[in-house]
Specification:
About 40% of the residues lie in helices and about 20% in strands. It is α/β, with parallel strands linked by helices. A five-stranded parallel β-sheet has the order 4-3-2-1-5. Strand 1, helix 1 and strand 2 form a beta-alpha-beta unit. Helix 1 crosses helix 2.
Length: about 120
C-alpha cells in the first residue's frame, strides 16, 4: 500500500475531476489517499454540490470515503469560497503561510501528486 497526497490546484473542472477519479481509484485499490484542494480549484466546491454537475457524485464519494483532507484557507478566501468550505465542513488547511504544507505530507511518507 502506498500513501498518496493529491494536491488539486487547477480550477478547470475537467482537470479537477481527474483528481476525484484518481483518488477514488487509488483508494479502491487499497492505497491511502488524501485529496487537498488548493489554488483556483477552491472555487469549484460550491458547484460540486449541485446534483446537476456531472462530477457531483464523485465529489460526494470522495467526501463520504474520508478522502478529502481539506481545503487551502488562503485560496478559499481569495476565491470567495471560505464560507462555503466552512458550511460543507471541509477542514481548512494553512500550515505554510496560509496554505497546506506539502512537507508535512512528505514527512509522513506520502507521495505528492499535483494537478
Amino acid at each position: 500500500m502506498r500513501k498518496i497526497a493529491i494536491f488539486a490546484f487547477n480550477g478547470d473542472i475537467m482537470c479537477f475531476a481527474h483528481g476525484l477519479f484518481n483518488a477514488l481509484d487509488m483508494a479502491a485499490k487499497g492505497h491511502e489517499v488524501r485529496l487537498i484542494i488548493e489554488g483556483s480549484a477552491t472555487g469549484l466546491i460550491r458547484d460540486l454540490t449541485d446534483e446537476k454537475n456531472p462530477f457531483s457524485s464523485f465529489y460526494s464519494q470522495v467526501r463520504d470515503l474520508g478522502l478529502l483532507e481539506g481545503i487551502c484557507r488562503a485560496c478559499a478566501q481569495k476565491m470567495g469560497t471560505l464560507e462555503e468550505a466552512k458550511a460543507q465542513g471541509i477542514p481548512l488547511l494553512g500550515e505554510a503561510y496560509g496554505h497546506p504544507a506539502m512537507v508535512d505530507y512528505m514527512e509522513k511518507g506520502y507521495e505528492i501528486i499535483t494537478l
